[in-house]
Structure prediction request, 180 residues.
Amino acid sequence: MSNDINLFQHTSANSPQKLTKEIRWIRLVSLLLLFIVPTGAVIIFLFIFFSPQTALQQQENMLLTKANTLGKRVSAISFINDRTTLSEQFISQRSIYGKALREMVLQLPTDVLINSVSIQKEAVILSVTSTSLTSLQTYQANLLAVPKSTQLLQKIAFQAIQLAPEDNNYQMTLQASIHE
Prediction:
């Protein structure tokens, strides 16, 4: 057998010098990775160890345990707080029916009686009776003076005036729009 027999052809792509250069390059990269990976792991560990995240987690756990012990009381207080906030919003948004109705009643002459009161979204419908048309006319004049003085009633619409023949009374129905 001869030592001159070479089973591989020596081409430029797989020459022994090139193969040794590639092996050296691979060794260098592997040695660099051998030092970079553990060093990176240690640096990441130190960042995690010294980060305030663990302190935040401890504070969170402490607050959760306190919340669990006071859970019913806190939830009741939160519920009451929400209800008071909602009721304040509701009160601030509702119309001023009471003031308008009081102003309409204050304008009534002594011989005029209220039959019915109906409150709609932005209006009050009032039905009054009297034995005298002059009393109803006085009430009408008094109501027409109200929007100028208090700015409470925006518009007053007289819907009907009727005579009830069985008791000889006059009935007047009017609608007053509320000014918000």
Residues 16-50 form the longest helix (35 residues). The radius of gyration is 47 Å. The chain has a mean pLDDT of 80. Residues 97-178 form a domain with the Gyrase A; domain 2 fold (CATH 3.30.1360.100).
